[in-house]
Amino acid sequence: MADRRRKPDPPAAPDDTAPVPEARKRAASPRAGAQRFSGTYAHVSLVNAIGQRIVRGDYPPGTILPNEAEWSEMFGVGRSVVREAVKMLMAKNLLASRPKVGSWVEPRERWNLLDRDVLTWYATSPDREGFLKAVQEFRHIIEPEAAALAAARRGEEQMQAISSACRQMGSAPTLSERTAADTAFHTAILRSAGNELLMPLGALIGSALESLFIFVTREADDLRHVQKLHEGIEKAILRQRPEAARRAVRRLLANTDQIIAEETIVRAASRSSRHAARAASG
Amino acid sequence: MADRRRKPDPPAAPDDTAPVPEARKRAASPRAGAQRFSGTYAHVSLVNAIGQRIVRGDYPPGTILPNEAEWSEMFGVGRSVVREAVKMLMAKNLLASRPKVGSWVEPRERWNLLDRDVLTWYATSPDREGFLKAVQEFRHIIEPEAAALAAARRGEEQMQAISSACRQMGSAPTLSERTAADTAFHTAILRSAGNELLMPLGALIGSALESLFIFVTREADDLRHVQKLHEGIEKAILRQRPEAARRAVRRLLANTDQIIAEETIVRAASRSSRHAARAASG
DNA sequence: CGTCAAGATATGTCGGACAAATAATACAAA
DNA sequence: TTTGTATTATTTGTCCGACATATCTTGACG
Fold it and tell me: Label partner for B57 (CA 20 to 30 A): which of A157, B120, B226, B245?
């Protein structure tokens, strides 16, 4: 779930580094079911909890969900909180509802899979491999063209944003910061492409990179190589060469494909070895 | 706004052609502001009203919106209805809010522009030309590749869905039905591509076609030509020729580009003639 | 000038009550 | 038996009022 609480633009934020208010006490007793997180509003917790369960497959499409009273009981929140959370999931087309029937899970092809939150839940679902495969294929479709458009139309500040992100990627001390810069790099390219419909896809790339960052360990040589690939993209856009940008992005994606493939093999091997161990011990 | 009230899958719907219950009486007096629509739930009306105003530009990004009490007053609904509507818009990233500050319009690049409802509001906004331009460019990126994937991976029933939609397009008696079949055709291709991330984009194509259907008059010759172009796509997918499918889609899109360009010229001309008339009379 | 305290105000949450929609059931009629 | 109709039960939809929480603003104080 994206952080809903950010400083609004108009009331200029004097200090955005202020710590998020933690340690919020709940008077309500934490009843059975999933726990509530302090520091977050109840409806946000609920949206995440229910959304994650749906995407994870706990309630397959067509299933009638627990009704409002049951959710309310399960999470120890008021009915209005449940209703607002359900409405948010409806807005993402994960749910629909009717009086006397209840709420049910919508068929998967209606889900707003490109939504930030839904992507996050998908990325942490058991089908992570399916997620990575789909996202990566999608990137192959989108990103080369986006880079080509960016090479053709990018403005001066946009170019600076791209270069800056690329530099930060190279000098990031931690993998986490590197991933953030990586996401910023690709998002900046999408923005530079001059088509606002492309921008929501930044969340897609971000969740893919984050998923890779969490599960894949990478060696120094590899990181250097990846950095060179990114610089190749930057250079092509800087020089306003659409075809070169397209090719450079394809090279990067091919590299990522390879990493995913290797990781998949490793995971499959460890899985089968676990199976073997279990079979041997059983 | 997509119709939220549909028959759920599990309780098999015996008759889906039953008329939507109209003529619902409101006890509450219709106060100032936008009117409520009978037959629809209040929160749906509110989501549409507020969402449309935001996308249309009535409240530019950064603007603090009226607070809950004011919306409540404006539309003559209770505060909970307002809150649920606002939550749905938050789920689409059009809004964010904070206690003591209020709700504000999020920067445009955070909007979930690929969402069905947001697209609908965008399509009816004053910037319809910008909308069509962006969507059409996006189609150029997505659809050729989707068709190529479909040609490579389509199943038997998926092929039947494509062919059926293509046939229905050819024999549709009204333009409205033709547009519906057209949308079904492209949606079926997206589904056949075997990447679920592509499926939400059906809404994009649908809204583009609907927008064209509403504003563009087309001649019989033109329609025949378009039909042939669609059949070319169908044939390529039927024969499982990815490259041919890609090319066929590009031909169709080039044709659509031309139609949009012509329409744009016509509208610009009528606009300037109106200006001229006004200038002459003023 | 900077820091901290108090007030003001918008959203967040709770609880209860009633309205509306509709699936399911019971029942009457053909 | 079948068909159509009224009743019932249940779930979501809406309203209201109260209070909690967050946080911007203001002002006192060092």
Answer: A157
Residue A4, CB, strand D, below 7 Å: no
Distance CA B85, CA B53 (A): 13
Question: In angstroms, what CA-CA distances link A184 with A7, A188, A203?
Answer: 20, 6, 10
Return the bridge partners of B96, or none.
Answer: B104
When CB atoms are compared, the residue of B11, B43, B80 closest to A101 is B11
Nearest DNA or RNA nucleotide to A65 (CA to C1'): D11
Closest alpha carbon to B22 in B36, B42, B38: B38
Q: Give the model confidence (pLDDT) of A59-85 as tens digits.
A: 999 999 999 999 999 999 999 999 999
Whether A109 sits inside 8 A of B63 (CB atoms) is no
Strand C footprint nucleotides (protein C-beta < 7 Å): 8-16, 19-24
pLDDT tens for each residue of B80-121: 999 999 999 999 999 999 999 999 999 999 999 999 999 999
Q: Which helix (H) or strand (E) holds B125?
A: none
Directed axis angle between helix B116-123 and helix B128-153, to 10°?
A: 140
Q: What's chain B's average pLDDT?
A: 86
- With 0-12 CB in 10 A as exposed, 13-18 as middle and 19+ as buried, what is A198? buried
Residues with Cβ within 8 Å of B99's Cβ and at least 6 positions away in sequence, in order, are: none
- Best of B197, B198, B201, B249 to disrupt the A interface (most A CBs within 10 Å) is B197
Of all nucleotides, the one whose C1′ comes closest to residue A27's CA is D20
CB A65 within 8 A of CB A105: yes
User: Can you tell me the distance from the alpha carbon of B84 to that of B86, in angstroms, rounded to the nearest whole number?
Assistant: 5
- Cα separation, B41 vs B88, in Å, equals 14
Q: CA nearest A245: which of A116, A171, A150? A: A150
The residue among A133, A129, A134 whose CA lies nearest residue A111 is A134
Poorest-confidence range of A56-65, A80-89, A118-127, A216-225? A216-225
User: What sign for the dihedral angle of Cα B234, B236, B241, B246?
Assistant: negative
B144 vs B243: CA distance, rounded Å: 9
Separation between Cα atoms, residue B143 and residue B185, nearest integer Å: 12
Q: What is the pLDDT of residues A133-166, one digit of tens each?
A: 999 999 999 999 999 999 999 999 999 999 999 9
Q: Which of A36, A33, A104 is nearest to A67 (CA)?
A: A104
* Closest partner CB to B6 (pick from A96, A112, A114): A96
CA distance B188 to B157: 10
What is d(CA A30, CA A22) in angstroms, rounded to the nearest whole number? Answer: 18
Closest CA of chain B from A203, distance in Å: 10
Here the tokens at position A75 are: 């999470």
Q: Which residue is nearest to nucleotide C24 (CA to C1')?
A: A100
The residue in chain B having the minimum alpha-carbon distance to the alpha carbon of residue A137 is: B195
Whose CB is within 7 A of strand C? A 28, 41-44, 76-81, 84, 98-101; B 5, 7, 11, 21, 24-25, 27, 65, 67-69, 80, 83, 86, 97-103
Bridge partners (DSSP) listed for residue A97: A103
Please give the residue of chain A at the shortest CA–CA distance from B122: A197
